[in-house]
Structure formats: structure tokens, C-alpha cells
Hints:
The chain is an alpha/beta fold and 320 residues long. It is built from 12 helices and 13 strands.
Amino acid sequence: MILVTGAAGFIGRHVVAELLRQQLPVRVLLAPEELPPALWADLPQPEVFAGRLNDDEVLLKACTGVHTIIHLASAMWWGSQRDLELVELAGTQSLIAVARSARVGRIILLSHLGAASSAGYVLHRVKGLEEELVRGSGLAYTILRSGLVFGPEDAFINHIAMMLSINPLFFLMPGRGEVVLHPLHIDDLTRAIVASLESLDAVDRTMEIGGIEYTTLADLISTVQRVCRRRRVVIPVPPYLMRVIVWLYERIYRRTLMTSQWLDVLATNRTTQLGNMYEYFGFQPRRLEDTLVTYLPRQASARRALRYVFQRRPRANVSV
């Protein structure tokens, strides 16, 4: 039995769907407000447990009989520092304690490139501390440090497209766009996570994975403009000033398209070796622009942007 946390999130939905397609036994932990009629309508339904990471009683029931936990719950794209600490740290501590009691065999944690407990940026530091919790848990583990994940409904490239759609004149770019990113398509990440279930080489390892190419932020913005056919004047803004602007937005709107964690992602280069995905899992990821053209131009970005910024923010211990 496999338990997936954060199953209602962007990554979680894809991972659970792939597990169900492969007819693997799946349980999901969902907060009560994340219980729609059917997240995976065309597939066999997983076993659902309604609760949060801080609910030890529900966690114990969910972990009983489980051999692997795929831990995807995160406040990365919407949360404050407090939310990150509640979900990534307190939530992971609770999960580990219950998993040990239930004799779970292994935990697979999704982290990201750049995570380090000594980092100066909140997101990188919290994710690094979460990794240390998992390594010191006494459980067998696999930590997958991923590059920037993209696909329909992602919270980075789609948000760039949304910002381009609601401002017909210019785009405010954090810094000068020189930060290097390593984008990875959601289907390739999903494939890697599922493959790690059967990989003995992945046990007790931290594995860094990314796509088939690197891109700078400036090139990424240019690519999105070209794919969406929305040319804007790109205005470089010093990172400290961009953080002030984001802080003001966060006081006005329920949710913002660009968050403090969004800026943490752009605080440093986030890359790994290009051949890692093939070395670890035996396949080549897909290219960025070739994939974006298959879905990004069709997105109703302006309407989605307006709907998003007035949407209620998730509560802590809820998936993204």
C-alpha cells in the first residue's frame, strides 16, 4: 500500500493518477475541504483519509499497512514562513513519528534544487531542514530534489503567462533575469517518482533531477511571451524592491501570482547535471518550449488570474 500526502495538489494529482493507472494500491490524505466528488474521475478511486498532517489519529489509520509514503504536501507556492514551518517541518515531524509507529518501510520526499539547511532564503532553508528530518528519521528514504516543475496549472510558468495577460504594457522581472533554472515537466517528474518505488539504487539517497535543458529567467519570460504571443516591455526590478512590491500585493489580495517563495526560487541558480534523469531512471525528459506550445496558448490566462487572486488561500497542512 502506498500513501500519498498532498494528493490534491498539482504534483499530487498527477502522481496519484499514474499510480492508479498502474493499478497500484493507493491511499491519499486529504484535508476535509479538499474532498471534491472525484479528483480522478476516469480511474479507480484511491482509499481516502480525511485529515491533516497534524492529526495523529487520522495519520496512524492512514499509515497502518503502508509500505511507502510519497510525501508531497507543501506550502511552497502560497504559504507564509509560518505556513512553511507548519507544513514542511511540523507536519513532516508528525508524519515521521506516526510512520515509525506504523512500521512504514520507506518515505519518498519531494524537495527542490537549492535546498540547504544553512541557506539564507526561507524556502531553501525550510526545505533543507525538512530533508534533514527525513534523513534522521530512522526510516529508509529517497529524497528527490527537483528542478522547476512546469505543466498545466503549475504555479510558476502559468503565473508568468497570467501576469502577461493582465498587464498589456510591461512585465516586472525580478533582477536582471540572469538566474539559471532547470525546468522539468510534470509528467517526467511523475514518472521519476513512480520509478523510484521499485529502484533499489534510490533507497537512502538524495537524487537531483531536472529537464533536458537549462534556461535563464530572461529567456524563460521571452519563451512564454513568444508561445502566448504577448509581447511586453520587460522591466528589470531589483530583488529587494520586488519583495516590497510582493509584500504590498499580499496585503491587498487573498492570493498573489508572485509570492515571497516565488522570489526565493529565483534567489540562486537551481540546476543539476543534464544527464541525471537518464542515469537514474533511464529516460530523457521533454523539452520546455516544445511542451509549452501544446497547452499554454489555450489557457484563458486573464480570467484564471482574476479568479486566482480572489480565491481563498489554503490553510496550513493543506496541499498546494
